[in-house]
């Protein structure tokens, strides 16, 4: 099993990094031989869509001319990292009700018309990537989901739409909330409770499907 781990927090002692590490540990318990590749957006942010990339994807005719440009090559590299993975693990903070800009920059380079997104004759978008399990650990300072939510949530619906657009629909979310208010002991207990709900049954199925 190849796991792509994407961490988005710039903080060393980050709650979302601890969450993603706990998700990885659970996956390694299922498959001790699994290989983990890291894409650390928090510590090594990728550039936002640059002039050349934005121009290249503005029309299919433009893309051919810009194919060897470094910005387009980065997009291709990021997409190939996703394609090479059987499972994705994302650790991300909630920033202003949604994903941090480092993760948005990644999304802008992975969701690409004609490469990861196709178009039906009717004009609807069709995802061109193979579905795979995506485990997403979210750390938020306040509460954004459940009966005690105090703020809107544009993170879970956004990631669901973004991944769905490229054909990846097997998402599981693990929100560790109120990091600004709870002590370490409570947060550790909450993290363990979240990880205990992790469903790993579809991992084998996805890999079997890919091998057939
Ligand atoms: C720029 C910024 C925006 C934030 N926006 C929100 C927010 O909208 N809602 C929220 O609950 N917490 C918000 N927070 C708090 C973080 O989600 C919280 O500190 C979280 O634990 C950070 O993740 P980390 O521990 O993995 O670094 C924000 C923090 C920063 C730095």
UniProtKB/TrEMBL annotation:
GO terms for molecular function: electron transfer activity; FMN binding; oxidoreductase activity, acting on NAD(P)H as acceptor; oxidoreductase activity, acting on NAD(P)H, quinone or similar compound as acceptor. Keywords: Flavoprotein, FMN, NAD, Oxidoreductase. Its EC number is 1.6.5.-, 1.7.1.17. Binds 1 FMN per subunit. Gene3D superfamilies: 3.40.50.360. Its cofactor is FMN. FMN binds at residues 9, 14-16. Residues 1-193 form the Flavodoxin-like fold domain. The keyword Magnesium does not apply. It catalyses: N,N-dimethyl-1,4-phenylenediamine + anthranilate + 2 NAD(+) = 2-(4-dimethylaminophenyl)diazenylbenzoate + 2 NADH + 2 H(+); 2 a quinone + NADH + H(+) = 2 a 1,4-benzosemiquinone + NAD(+). InterPro entries: Flavodoxin_fold, Flavoprotein-like_sf, FMN-dep_NADH:Q_OxRdtase_AzoR1, NADH:quinone_OxRdtase_FMN_depd. SUPFAM superfamilies: Flavoproteins. Belongs to the azoreductase type 1 family. Also exhibits azoreductase activity. Catalyzes the reductive cleavage of the azo bond in aromatic azo compounds to the corresponding amines. Homodimer. This is FMN dependent NADH:quinone oxidoreductase. The lineage of its organism: Bacteria, Pseudomonadati, Pseudomonadota, Gammaproteobacteria, Pseudomonadales.
